[in-house]
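fold-stage: in
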Amino acid sequence: MHSKPMIAALLVLASATATAAGDGMVSMRSAHDVATTTERLVDTLEAKGMTVFRVIDHAAGAEGAGLELRPTRLVIFGNPKIGTRLMQCGQTAAIDLPQKMLVWEDASGATRVGYNAAEYVAERHDTGPCNGVVEKVGKALQAFAAAASGR
């Protein structure tokens, strides 16, 4: 298993425009509002051959329950050719698949895009390097978030 400091270092290196929390979540600020960022993300994913399973509008759900929540959308997507390879290296990775990206408006009014770092998922499920799959997933997630955010 990798050490926590090593994972933290990998997360920080994930992107010059992204920030990583200690919990393995990478986030970057978007140049667009939540609706536009979500639309750009879905378009990017579909153009790259990903299956978009669902977009969940948590703010709409909150409103339906008589509660308020800043705009918050979860995009669930994946590609069985890649996800299966990751699960073959560590089957419990299935709990974190398909992939998810969160698009939300933070307390300051900025739109952010966030996702679980591939290295964090690998550490969590002890997949090791998994024949380059972890690195490939990490680069893809970073590219998807950058395309969606306009960064």
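fold-stage: in (second)
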Amino acid sequence: MKLALGTAQFGLDYGIANKEGQISSSEAKKILQRAKNSGINMLDTAAVYGTSERVLGQAGVEEFEIVTKLPPVPSHANDISGWVEETIAQSLQNLGVSTVYAVLLHRPLQLMDSGGEELYSVLQDLRAKGWFQKFGLSVYEPSELELILPHFRVDLIQAPLNLIDRRLISSGWLQHLSDNGIEVHARSAFLQGALLMQPKERPQYFKAWSDSFDHYDQWLKTEKLSPLEACLGFAYHSPVDRVIVGVDSSAQLEAIVKAIPDRPLTPPKELESSEPNLINPGNWNL
């Protein structure tokens, strides 16, 4: 099973299609049980996802491989090594585990700052001590890889990939990462839920790209695809190691698992965009 469960909703009111807000601890446990039953064995979380790590720890996650993320090192941190060690130790304590599968940098370009070498060094030391197996980067665009990878060895890259945002593929970076044995996890398969919404549900903000969404809606209709089937048919069958999906309920996770097509889909070229105000949810003005 290539799906990994994203858990931002476990600690935050996350996603524009999320109508329920932060999920309850009881629903979180149901989701985790559904994940186990579906063959999903990896969780994606982060220290900055509100109470997500604590909720996971309380639910019990020993049977899962866990990917978490180190927050940006604060500018006032005089002892970078001490801060990193303390922060990761807190994540492990919150999660109730002694080791995790991977630790990613939430702001990887900090490696290129003045304290970057120290940041990298302490992470490699903690990895050698068994705190985590793999070190990686959570990136927003391929240009970050161009800056960092010539200087630092990483094991895992997490990056956005969906029907509209295909930069990871079109830039050639997905092939390059694969050729170099670097694990790739795709996130934002649903563009934070925007690609799953019915036309009448989409926020006014997306009117600026109405032609693209009209094309998307027509393609779904012509191919007799649900939005879930379309998004998963592209992302799941792309040459990545994992596809991270976030859910609001156990029923939603069950629907996602059932919607995975048994064959890859080839979406129209016209759907692809590199417009940052569309493909980067951090730029959305909703």
